[in-house]
Design goal:
mainly alpha; 7 helices; globular
């Protein structure tokens, strides 16, 4: 299974909001994939794009997703996310695959999770 990992073109407004977010700037301290997984598990409580009541402040989930994009995850790391029993880690893995894989590879990556 191949999953391309070039940076996708996020909505420019969302990308700008994430990059200027104080929380996202704190994520620079996270250097390893394991650090990011721990942060997802301890900080995420929604898969919404923006924080509740705001269309300017991105959610922690989106900031961490963008961090994963910048890290250019390996196939092994993506599989680790997809097999996680933590709902937000798995959701991020699924979103990562959905937005970065070539269309013809999507079924191979996502079919095991169709009935989850």
């Amino acid at each position: 299974m191949n999953c391309d990992t070039p940076l996708i073109h996020l909505n420019e407004k969302l990308k700008k909001n994430v990059q200027s977010s104080g929380y996202f700037k704190e994520l620079y301290a996270l250097k390893t994939f394991e650090d990011v997984l721990y942060e997802i598990k301890s900080s995420c409580n929604t898969i919404e794009t923006y924080q509740k009541g705001s269309m300017e402040v991105p959610s922690k989930f989106m900031c961490l997703f963008y961090k994963c994009l910048l890290m250019r995850l390996t196939a092994h790391q993506i599989k680790q996310m997809l097999s996680s029993d933590h709902v937000y880690v798995r959701a991020m893995g699924l979103l990562y695959v959905r937005l970065l894989c070539k269309y013809e590879n999507l079924f191979d990556w996502l079919s095991p999770y169709l009935f989850d």
